[in-house]
Automatic annotation (TrEMBL):
Its main location: endoplasmic reticulum. It is a multi-pass membrane protein. Its EC number is 2.3.1.-. It holds the Pfam family DAGAT. The lineage of its organism: Eukaryota, Metazoa, Chordata, Craniata, Vertebrata. One of its GO terms (cellular component) is endoplasmic reticulum membrane. The chain crosses the membrane at residues 21-41. It is found in: Endoplasmic reticulum membrane. GO terms for biological process: diacylglycerol biosynthetic process; triglyceride biosynthetic process. This is Acyltransferase. Keywords: Acyltransferase, Endoplasmic reticulum, Lipid biosynthesis, Lipid metabolism, Membrane, Transferase, Transmembrane, Transmembrane helix.
Length: 335
């Protein structure tokens, strides 16, 4: 196979963009196991006290992820994230105002392979979320498994990430006075297995947990569609019914995380690797769906609001797809 190497005269700005995304990919794929290894390795060196003291800290800080985490504005505002934004580039598009006196659940679609758009838009300040929606604080949900990793848990909390279990997601929504936006990649890890370029499969047809949570807390629902999210990686063909897809789904049920076999480009060449392609991601935030608080919704209540949410998401897609190169005959496929 012929390898297409990057030219030697690549501008420094593009090199910095690649470095920023490279560290993000490593953080997503390799930092957690690295932190676990480091934690145990230190126990058998003269620096063993670091791990011991961290264990004591962890004991007292154990519940912090489920209580809103610990966002550090300095980390969210690092220049690093501007370079990551410009690599693709990533853009956040506002279509309606969100009242900061209310709490919201933002349903993010599609998950993609590594939710690049969700992280850049809602965990960093690079795309202007604070300016577009003044008074709102965003919390992106992440698999609870990652908050069990020493050191790594503290790093991801700095960016406003919290566990995706019901208790953790409900905590910001219970706060009086509003101003909290919980961002849920509704399709979750299973949807990553459908993240192929040119596909618009949304794992939503049976997903009603976030609908019930919205009703219980009176949090308004906001559909969000991220054009380009599925375009930044290729994935080995794994159609439903194949042995590969069966194996991936089985592992996902056992481990709680999906294992899409994805690839794209490298750092110094464009032929293969785990770096995403430089393809634009445009995240469209729709208008809010007003939700009345109902702590004991019936099945009919849930079904009605769920259908309304799917209709609004479909309308959002149809309204904007022409601006982002999607064929007029292409529609969302609710799975």
């Amino acid at each position: 196979m012929k390898i297409d190497f990057a030219p030697a005269d690549v501008p420094i700005q593009r090199r910095l963009q690649t470095a920023a995304v490279g560290q993000w990919v490593f953080s997503f794929l390799g930092l957690a196991p690295t932190c676990i290894f480091l934690f145990f390795y230190l126990l058998f060196t003269r620096f063993w006290l670091i791990s011991v003291l961290y264990t004591v800290w962890w004991f007292f800080d154990y519940d912090t992820p489920s209580r809103g985490g610990r966002r550090i504005p300095f980390v969210c505002g690092l220049k690093l994230w501007d370079y990551m934004r410009d690599y693709f580039p990533v853009k956040l598009v506002k279509t309606a105002d969100l009242d900061p006196r209310q709490n919201y659940i933002l349903g993010f679609h599609p998950h993609g392979v590594l939710v690049a758009g969700a992280f850049t838009n809602f965990c960093t300040y690079a795309t202007g979320f604070r300016q577009l929606y003044p008074g709102l604080r965003s919390y992106l949900l992440m698999l609870p498994l990652w908050f069990k990793s020493p050191f790594f848990r503290d790093y991801i909390m700095c960016a406003g990430l919290i566990p995706s279990d019901k208790e953790s997601a409900s905590y910001p929504l219970r706060k009086k006075g509003g101003g909290n936006a919980v961002v849920i990649a509704v399709g979750g890890a299973p949807e990553a297995l459908d993240a192929h370029p040119g596909t618009y499969n949304v794992l939503l047809a049976q997903k009603k947990g976030f609908i019930k949570m919205a009703m219980e807390h009176g949090a308004h629902l906001v559909p969000v569609f991220s054009f380009g999210e599925n375009e930044v990686f290729d994935q080995i063909e794994n159609q439903r019914g194949t042995w590969l897809r069966w194996t991936q789904e089985r592992l996902q049920r056992i481990m709680g995380i999906s294992l899409p076999l994805f690839h794209a480009r490298g750092i110094f060449q464009y032929s293969f690797g785990l770096m995403p392609y430089r393809k634009p991601i445009s995240t469209i935030v729709g208008k809010p769906i007003n939700v009345e608080k109902n702590e004991t919704p019936t099945a009919e209540d849930l079904d009605a609001l769920h259908q309304l949410y799917m209709d609004e998401l479909s309308n959002l897609f149809e309204e904007h797809k022409g601006n982002y190169g999607v064929d007029k005959d292409t529609h969302l496929n609710f799975v």
